[in-house]
Amino acid sequence: MVKSERYDFVDFLRGIAMTVMIEVHIFNALLVNGLKTGTWFTVLNFVNGLVAPAFIFISGFAFTFSFAGISETGRINFIRKKTPRILLIILAGYTVHLPAFTLQGFRYVAGERGLKEFYNVDVLQCIGTGLILLMLIAVVSKTAFSYRIIVSLTGAAIVIFSPLVWTVDFTSVLPGFFASYFNELNGSYFPIFPWLGFMFAGSLTASIYSEAKEREKEFLKKTGLLGIVLALSGLAVLYFLEQSPGFSIRPNQFFFIERLGVIFILLYVCRILCDRKGPLKNILLKVSRESLGVYWLHLLLIYKPFFAGKSLNDLFFGRLEISACLLITFIMIMTMFLFAYCWSALKRSFPLAFKRGFMGTVAVLMMVFLIK
Asked: What is the residue extent of each domain of the chain?
């Protein structure tokens, strides 16, 4: 089995995560608050809560699997080629939070509250930062074993110390821009504690998986069984911990254990599903491979003023019934599917022109932002 075929199931899971992510953002923004109750929403909220851990895990898995087995010299070249894309991921994360599309507008609109929102570390900044750390570990690691040891220790430290880190106000020692990377006290949704724990778990899994070869399905089956144990044990412990007053679930180590267990289960399920061919699989793979564009575009359509000077969030925040949210979710998903298909076709048909055009467009937009 060639590497690309073995990798499809990871892309398939990311495609599912991206699709569910669209639903998450629309329902969170537009659904009437009074409907966010009951068993159905508790279940939906749990499913939605798996999206970010899965997305971050897969980013670490995909990055590490891509350079697994490459020589030290080849690894340096790989990292050199990947660095611009990683920086683009971080930049895209910040553009989503821009209060205005020009520097003058930014200065005019962004007071203390606007700057705090801009500094917000979202999933893209979290992923980009994690990939930079993985690159540094890859550079200093001489062997696959040493890479796994460093990744394991770093990931474990992030998970173990997350509850403590979440109690520290880093603005007392760091500028707000950097302090936002450590915990949610400044409004960040995905600070590196504990979220990079999922990326390092994905990286470690990919490093081991890359050597599974003919034992691939056996390896994933054992991973799935481990996932069941982790998910059930994490769920059981969290059930009792949640009864404690002042309990915070996200930085807790058992939150990580529970979510990681479910991701392991999903990896095995997606590997089985990927043996089947069909149009849904193909489009989900395209969505996955264009995940940066899909993530960035759907957030702009929800939160930026593209509809007569207003965003969907401005027009319908907390006002829509379930049926209306489902309709908008369906339309948005179909729009993103079409975008991913067309974007992928352009890249495949005109690779050089596409690359130059894309980089030129990014450069022009940055100049416009700085000059206007």
From this structure: 3-371
